[in-house]
Amino acid sequence: xxxxxxxxxxxxxxPLLAVLxxxxxxxxYLSPEGVQRTLGPGAHGAAxxxxxxxxxxxxxxxxxxxxxxxxxxxxxLLGAATVGEAAGAYGDPLIFLFFGxxxxxxxxxxxxxxxxxxxxxxxxxxxxxxxIIGAFxxxxxxxxxxxxxxxxxxxxxxxxxxxxxxLEEASPADPRTQKVGTALVLGVAYAASIGxxxxxxxxxxxxxxxxxxxxxxxxxxxxxDWMTVAMPLVVLLLLGAWWLLTRVVFRLGHEPLPGTxxxxxxxxxxxGPVTRPERLTAGVFxxxxxxxxxxxxxxxxxxxxxxxxxxxxxxxxAISAAILLFVLPAGTRSGGDPQFLMDWPTAxxxxxxxxxxxxxxxxxxxxxxxxxxxxxxxxxGQGLERLPTWLLIAVxxxxxxxxxxIASNVATATTVxxxxxxxxxxxxxxxxxxxxxxxxxxxxxxxLPVATPPNAIAYGTGRITAGQxxxxxxxxxxxxxxxxxxxxxxxxxxxxxxx
Length: 499
Prior knowledge:
Layout: H1 2-24, E1 28-30, E2 36-38, H2 41-59, H3 64-67, H4 70-78, H5 83-88, H6 93-110, H7 113-121, H8 129-146, H9 149-170, H10 176-195, H11 204-215, H12 223-249, H13 260-269, H14 276-293, H15 295-299, H16 314-327, E3 329-332, E4 338-340, H17 344-347, H18 352-371, H19 373-379, H20 389-403, H21 409-426, H22 431-442, H23 453-459, H24 466-498
Antiparallel strand pairs: 1-2, 3-4
């Protein structure tokens, strides 16, 4: 009963906070240029809905995907947007990029390519615990570049657990086996979150922030641009996480685990020969990844004075790959009916709610610009330019990292990114580096099971305790803040400034 009462209090607190924000915002304010500006009802409505959604997202009193629908219902009533303007964000091109990426990921999972890749590589890494954990983390991070971190964790943890179970049977008396299992489960979860930062489609906040930069900030950032600035951070964090897990938190030592190589070779031998669906799916995946990376030169390709691919987009590549998977035959079923690499029953496993969540966040973000709320928030950013750049980035990273421990990384990004961008513009600072730092920080919630889906999935295996995750995650959060600050100041700011 008490829990239900608290739930209703949180539900009612959303609209009450919205009313408070609506009437507390001023109707006029002084711009950074000293000009008196008017803040209309639409801006008040956009701010009120933002506060309402932020509270419901943080408390998780109703599904976050349902909260993301509030702009469709409330913006037209409050004058923040017409229903067409509010709904337009739910069809943003980058949402279709993510949808296509989901279909490709489901095809990889359907035909077991993740397991084949893992068990083909692992027998060659040796028997030392640190090497095994490093190999698992590397494979997981690579998959998470192209597949969502949640799906990657769901695919890789069963492989990791099967290896752990077999190692425990082979070396029941070795006291390190349990520590290796704990470190391996945490390593897979952390590597999935870290790898997801590396591409536009790796994790949900990336999709939102890339669309925000392309749309609201009107600065194009391509798939290759994103990888250029993000991959150094991925490598640093991955190495840092591996070092923490194997050398600091669990101290696994350098001695090999007896029987490990034989165990991995036996598991690999059970895979059987590579099948036709595996080869075709791998081909589609590699072709899609190459097209994303080399899209810019492809759009400039000229044949007989014509540029046939000039209209090629990242979203178009993703949707083309998805359609191709439905077209390519995988063989025949037992009844003689044709089977394809992808079918609709498998495709229905796409997390449709997540696509709604992106739309809600983008609808919020566009309302900031449309109603003039962004200019008001920007006016509050005066004075930030006096802070050293590294300190400003570090404060942003630390704030978002620890906020993402209690709120979902998508909710955190969609709430704070428009505000941070407006504050940066008001202070005369380039907003893109600050927005990217916040985006990466949103994926660095490593301490709590509720912080990210990979954390929750790892905790659900029963092989780690909340205390073990908190200890390892605390140190990794610190590394994350330091590395995000260093990469933003040393790579992102010079690179973005050069574009």
